[in-house]
Amino acid sequence: MARIILHVDLDCFYASVEKRDNPAYAGKPLVVGADPSGGAGRGVVLTASYEARKFGIKSGMPISRAYRACPTAIYMRPSFPKYLDASRQVMAILKPVSTGFQSGGLDEAYIDVTEKCPTFDAAYALAEAIRKEVRERVGITCSIGIGPTRSLAKIATDIHKPDGITTITPETIEQVTGHLDIDAIPGIGKKTRQHYIDKGVKTLGDLYRMSLPGLVFLLGPRAARWLHDTIHGIETGTLREHRGRKSISKERTFSKDVADYATITTKLQELNKRLHDNARSRRIRYQTVTLKIRFEGFETFSRSMSAARAIQDEGRAFAMVTSMLEPFKHDKRRVRLVGIKLSNLEGTTRGCQQRAIDDFVPS
């Protein structure tokens, strides 16, 4: 019997909370992130409302570029305590109806409802009840994907956003997903997408119809097995809350080696934001911040700074990162990879060490 996994994703989460608390903003483009004027145009977009996305504004974009795209949008600094409270309210709705739970940060979670729902139709009814309760109790909307695995549930979520529910059963995988671009699979970025397209794998339908040996011939054994299992709904393991980790980290490889330190700083700010989303959702404090930088030629350096006591401060952590980055700006080599690690963790509570979904998919 197939498992039934629900992926619950809070729509434009930060922006939705701000619109909930400011009804006058309804229907208007709203951007949560750095102040484009007071911050001299530095920093990045954390979340953009759907109205703002129509102007091409998206998460991770430099705030100065967002402002040029839509100077009339409402720009707001983030209010993390408010977002954390809303997130906790949603998670309190989800946990009692699941036998397995895994957070993906403040704004998403996976729940296993196999034991609660004997059929996918029953899971759809549960998803409708969850969506209604989130709207009534928390005042925001969510999109829900239903599938036999985490990956397929997440793919389903994106099909009918915002405020939608989509089901993918083992029997309807090709029917529901076949038209989607290959990058609908979590973890496939621009560079990997183009590589697969060059090999003739453009859509999930192309992928579904290829045999495993054929994929191995085109893409190699590791990528082939991962893609084959993902599209065919094959997944091992259970949703659970992992404990006992000594650090949390994020790192990304640039599609092309980079010499522009403004680009490098923007990427580090994005990684820092995502790390702190996880830290806030898990109630993690940390004492040590580590910067990792890899140059062309794969020479890699790490630098660490520690606070006097455990903290959870996104701005202070980023100040540490930029301070550690400064000496490397004199190096003329291009940068291949950057990363941030938070360690010497303290103040965690039961369940706070669960791994986010990004820890399970390739970059």
CATH architecture of the domain at 247-359: 2-Layer Sandwich
User: Please, what is the CATH homologous superfamily of the domain at 247-359?
Assistant: DNA polymerase, Y-family, little finger domain
Q: Averaged pLDDT, please?
A: 87
Radius of gyration: 21 Å
* Percentage of residues in strands: 15-25%
User: Helix count?
Assistant: 13
Q: Choose one word for the global shape.
A: globular
User: Sheet bearing the most strands, described?
Assistant: 5 strands, mixed
Order of strands side by side in the largest beta sheet? 5-6-1-7-8
The helix/strand series, from N terminus to C terminus, equals EHEEHHEHEEHEHEHHHHHEHEEHE
- Return the CATH class of the domain at 247-359: Alpha Beta
What is the terminal separation in angstroms? 31 Å
The poorly predicted ranges are: 348-363
Task: Please describe what this structure looks like.
By secondary structure, the chain is α+β, with helices and mostly antiparallel strands. Among the domains are: 13-78, MutS, DNA mismatch repair protein, domain I; 171-232, DNA polymerase, domain 1, CATH 1.10.150.20; 247-359, Dna Ligase, domain 1 (2-Layer Sandwich). Helices cover 38% and strands 21% of the residues. The strands form 3 sheets. It has a 5-stranded mixed sheet with strand order 5-6-1-7-8. A hairpin with a 4-residue loop joins strand 5 (100-103) and strand 6 (108-112). The radius of gyration is 21 Å and the shape is globular.
Q: What would a concise description of this structure say?
A:
This protein is an alpha+beta fold and 363 residues long. The protein has helices at 13-21, 50-53, 63-69, 80-94, 120-138, 150-159, 173-177, 190-198, 204-209, 212-219, 221-231, 261-282, 314-325, and strands spanning 5-10, 30-33, 45-48, 74-76, 100-103, 108-112, 142-147, 165-167, 247-258, 286-295, 300-311, 335-343.
